Amino acid sequence: MKALKIISVISFLLIGGIQLHGTVNFALLFLYLVDFIQSFTYNNLGIYWEISILAIFTIGTLIIYLLCRKGKDRFLLLFCFVALLLSVLFLTGAFDQNNYDRISFGFIIPLLIFYNKFTNSNNKRFQKTIKPLKQALTTNGQGFFIPYKLLLIFSHSLKHI
Questions:
Q1: What is the C-alpha separation between 113 and 39, in angstroms, rounded?
Q2: N- or C-end of the chain: fewer Cβ atoms within 10 A?
Q3: How big is the chain by its Cα radius of gyration, in Å?
Q4: Lowest mean pLDDT: which of 61-65, 81-85, 117-121, 128-132?
Q5: How many domains does the chain have?
Q6: Which residues of 35-67 are buried (b: 16+ CB within 10 A; e: fewer)?
């Protein structure tokens, strides 16, 4: 599980941007942090402070994701996943429609690896809650599948029309 977490974090950091100067997330986060620190003492590089705060929260989310324990923090892991996906949209420039022409394999492949490894590492944590829910939704306690029973009810109601 720890290896899957490390692979997903590395793939997150290697997602390439689709903006004009397609930069990987690792370089962008580093650049935003340097600008944030320099803005206290020198003239800043012209990067908005909101994005620097986003970089700090993204790094914090990555650290929280790596430090989460096995089964106890599954909803925190789900929150980390959603937060990291939203930060990918901001960091890579995927919100701008003009950038869609620049989508390359440097964006798609690391994003798919990040998504795949993140879901694989968290799949077993949610499996214990999904199986009883799936069983409750598919059977009514007597072994009959609910969709089959609904189909029977629907077919009987059509006969009376």
A1: 35
A2: C
A3: 23
A4: 128-132
A5: 1
A6: bbeeeeeeebeebeeebbebbeebeebbeebee
Identify whether 117 is part of a domain: yes
The alpha carbon of 115 is separated from its chain's Cα centroid by a whole number of angstroms, namely 6
Range of the structural domain that residue 48 is part of: 2-125
Residue in the structure block whose two tokens are 């620190």: 37
- Residues contacting 44, CB < 8 A, separation 6+: 35, 38
- pLDDT tens readout for residues 140-159: 555 545 555 555 555 555 55
Domain assignment present for residue 15? The answer is yes
**pLDDT tens column, 27-52:** 888 888 888 888 777 765 666 777 78
Q: Is residue 160 part of a domain?
A: no
- Predicted TM-score (pTM) of the model is 0.69
- Determine, yes or no, domain membership for 16: yes
Cα distance between residue 95 and residue 150, in whole Å: 42
Q: Which residues pair with 16 in a beta bridge?
A: 24
**Residue 29: exposed, middle, or buried by beta-carbon count in 10 A (0-12, 13-18, 19+)?**
buried
pLDDT digits (tens, 9 = 90+) for 88-131: 888 888 888 888 888 888 888 888 888 888 887 777 666 665 55
CA 112 to chain centre: 10
